[in-house]
Design goal:
The protein has 255 residues and is an alpha/beta fold. Helices cover 45% and strands 13% of the residues.
Length: 255
């Protein structure tokens, strides 16, 4: 399964959702790969403890090689990095990814990521793709290469306003490039169940027929702590309520 976590709005929890679902997948014995397309490299740092500047072999090499006519290329086995946890690997981002975007776009390399993902799907049971907070070459490449799309939603009025455009962009990508892409669901994130507005926004989405997933992820300081420690929740606080919600969410996605 190749799954992209996408939202054009920043700060909605894409990296947190990507990495925590991937960590649970790996804990359940599934060989799991995280592909980090965001130049900020939050997923890469979360899973390895290294900044994008500290990594020598990254997605930058893959995309740079897509522009080169050369037989001397770094194999994917060199670019994909192990983590300290069994079954969990990451293909890290790099801060210079954006410098390649114009060349990749002008030379129509938009399907190169899909080709690579399909090759890795022969090796990995689960592939999770983290995306930049924009509809650019890299996020479009991910939508073309994925089978499923998860949309983080952080119970914010701005997110609510932007959701229609986001779904429209996904529909356009499906129509033009990837008819097999399915919106797997909207992941309600940083939910505060006692607050009136978040529950109202979620109810509106459900009433309008949007595919809101039944598990709503609570807001917790444990998430920020796990970021600082570079340790996903299932390894940091395995018995915490939020960890349980992620486990339940992964179970729903696996049905």
């Amino acid at each position: 399964m190749i799954r992209v976590v996408f939202n054009q709005k920043g700060g909605v929890g894409k990296s947190s959702i990507t990495c925590n679902l991937a960590a649970i997948s790996a804990c359940q014995g599934l060989k799991t790969l995280v592909v980090d397309l965001d130049p900020q490299g939050n997923s890469s740092h979360y899973l390895t403890g290294k900044t994008v500047q500290e990594m020598d072999d990254t997605l930058f090499d893959f995309f740079e090689q897509c522009l080169m006519i050369s037989s001397q290329r770094k194999p994917m086995t060199q670019l994909i990095q192990p983590t300290q946890w069994d079954n969990l690997h990451v293909l890290p981002a790099h801060s210079e990814l954006e410098s390649l975007e114009a060349k990749l776009e002008s030379r129509y390399k938009i399907y190169k990521l899909k080709e690579m993902l399909q090759e890795q799907a022969e090796i990995y049971d689960q592939i999770f793709i983290d995306t930049p907070p924009a509809l650019n070459f890299f996020s479009r490449s991910a939508l073309i290469g994925a089978e499923r799309c998860l949309i983080p939603f952080d119970c914010d009025a701005f997110s609510r306003q932007a959701l229609g455009q986001l779904l429209g962009n996904i529909d356009e990508m499906r129509a033009d490039h990837n008819p097999d892409l399915q919106v797997e669901g909207i992941v309600v994130n940083q939910m505060q169940p006692q607050a009136k507005l978040p529950q109202q926004l979620v109810n509106e989405l459900i009433e309008e027929g949007h595919p809101v997933l039944p598990v709503h992820l609570m807001s917790s300081v444990k998430m920020r702590e796990s970021h600082q420690l570079s340790k996903p929740l299932v390894h940091y606080v395995p018995k915490h309520k939020l960890t349980g919600q992620f486990v339940e969410l992964f179970s729903v996605l696996s049905e």
